[in-house]
Structures are given as structure tokens and as C-alpha cells.
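Sanity check

After download, print the first record. It should look like this:
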Amino acid sequence: MALAARARSPRGFIIAGLVPAALMLLIGLSGKVTAATLVPGIGPSADWNADWHSVIVRSFWAQADLFSFGMVVAVLHVQARRGRLRLPRNWRTLALAVAVPVGVVAAVRLTPHDAQLSYRPESTVIAAVFAVLLAFVVLPNRDGATARRRGSRRTSRLDQGSPSGWSPTACSFGTSRSSTGFVYMG
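Expected C-alpha cells:
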């Protein structure tokens, strides 16, 4: 909050928004490293035993990095909605061309270890891949259209909100201004 209050430029706002995501990434990675090296698991059910390894693996400390990528997408979404971010025309193609094979390799590497929520780095990679898929849906093209707006009628109705100015998107990402000029905080 203090970083955002001191930000004076659009670049400062982006940095202020990305600092918490970077912090979450560092917290999560430090928890994963601790679980893997300082408090290693024992046996085939290592992540589910009554020991400190299992506590760390299931804690916010070792899972915080999974939130960071969605936080980055939220920052990019806000900047795109404000017109401060213009992505290249082919960013979706490039993002999917990288995310799909990387995600498949990470999923295959996780499968033999049955490590859905573990300290393994593949969990972090899977979170990044799903953040790319989320970005695919919520970030606009050059023409300003998002996949969400090009989608079904039900989705576009949700995005329009009610006559009072409330919408799920506005509540998720900050504020929305109604026709009366009141600001609804999300």
C-alpha cells in the first residue's frame, strides 16, 4: 500500500503492483527449498506424515508462490483496462506455444511422484502455466477485445454488470463508477 501511495508514474504503479507478487514468489520458493533440503520427507507418503516436512509442504509458506502468477495477471489486467498496457498482436499464440509444452512436461514430471501440492518445482511451473491461460482469457488483443468478451452470451452478461454499476470484474479488481458517479469499492 505504501508503494502505491508513493508511486507517481504509471511505471511506478506497475512496480508497486508487482512487488507483492515477487514477495509471494520468494516466500513460496523459500518454503519449497526448506521442505526439500532442510526438512526432507521420509517414506512414500512423505508429504502426508505427521512430521514437520508435511506441515511445511501444506503451509502457506511453501504454497505462496502459486499465488504470485495470478497476482501478476491481475496487475497486467488493470493496466490493460486503463489503457497503459499494449500487448503485441501475436502474444496469445506465443504464450500458448510456450505454456502448453512446458505445462505438459511439468505435468508428466509430477505424475510419477503424485505431487499435486508438493515442494517440487513443477508445481510452481504448473501455476505459471495456468496464469498464462488466465491471461489468455482476461487480457485484451490489440483491438481491445478479450477472450471473455468474445465468448458466450452468459459471460458477456456477467461482464456488463447490473444497472447499479456493480459487476464481478469491478469487485475483483478495484473500483467501478456507476452512472450516478458513486464509486463502488471491490
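If your output differs, re-run the checksum step. Summary of this record's structure: DSSP finds nine helices and two strands in the chain.
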